[in-house]
Amino acid sequence: MTQWANDGFETDPRVTQILDIFAKETATERVLLRPEATIEDLGIASLDLTLAVFQLESVFDIEIPVIAARPGTEFGTVGELVGHVIAVMDKARALNGAKA
What we know:
Layout lengths: L5 H6 L1 H14 L19 H15 L17 H22 L1
Helix pairs in contact: 2-3
């Protein structure tokens, strides 16, 4: 599982997009979305989390795979979610670059 570093939270412009989408889809105050914040502590329902993931997939034109080791609980923290999405985006970019 990729854990997004705290410094990446502040410097990678993709993080802002991810968190803005996540906040909107889960009706969570954006200021609460810190790397160490747990999905459980934020009170985000699994359906809202699923809808947020679908929206992230749609906006970024990616497919976020289920993590086999943790099905249903892939993202314990906001940092884990962001790290996973960034990793998928990077992998998709690398694959698309290889096809060009």
